[in-house]
Amino acid sequence: METQTKYFLVGLFVVLAITSFNGVDGAGECGKSSPDNEAFKLLPCASAAQDANASPSSQCCSQVKKIGQNPSCLCAIMLSKTAKSSGAKPEIALTIPQRCNLADRPVGYKCGPYTLP
């Protein structure tokens, strides 16, 4: 009886582990990474995301250009808890692609209550 219980628990663990891993493989706005994790890549944009008069750094513009290839990810990052807790203001952060003079930025993309200029 003790052996059956042990096999049952091991089997249950395997099923739960497989189910958990399948959930992780799901892709969200930013693929397999969460917008909160991706927000750390935009750390060089911190001052530009708080002050509309601050010039974004070249590192900031480089990251925004990479992430901006997926507008839904860029939007999710700029509206993420991590971005908000860092003091980023979404209405200002969403102007960074324009302030970086990115020609291929997603102009007019709806991002929550905001629209990318």
Please give a quick description of this structure.
The protein is mainly alpha-helical.
Radius of gyration over all CA atoms, rounded:
20 Å
Spell out the helices and strands N to C: HHHHHHHEE
Count of DSSP E strands? 2
Shape annotation: globular
Proportion of residues in β-strands:
under 5%
**Helix percentage range:** 40-55%
The main pleated sheet reads as: 2 strands, antiparallel
List low-pLDDT spans.
3-25
Supply the helix-strand structural class: mainly alpha
Total count of helical runs of at least 4 residues: 7
Span from first to last CA?
A: 68 Å
As laid out across the biggest beta sheet, the strand order is 1-2
Return the average pLDDT rounded to an integer: 82
Could you characterize what this model shows?
By secondary structure, this protein is mainly alpha-helical. The chain has a two-stranded antiparallel ribbon. The chain is globular. Strand 1 (110-111) and strand 2 (114-115) form a beta hairpin. It has helices at 2-24, 35-39, 58-67, 71-78, 81-85, 90-93, 96-99; strands at residues 110-111, 114-115. The protein is 50% helix and 3% strand. The chain contains seven helices and two strands, in the order αααααααββ.
Describe the secondary structure blueprint for this structure.
Layout: H1 2-24, H2 35-39, H3 58-67, H4 71-78, H5 81-85, H6 90-93, H7 96-99, E1 110-111, E2 114-115
Antiparallel strand pairs: 1-2
Quick tags:
single chain, 117 residues, mainly alpha, two-stranded antiparallel sheet, 7 helices, 2 strands, globular, disordered N terminus
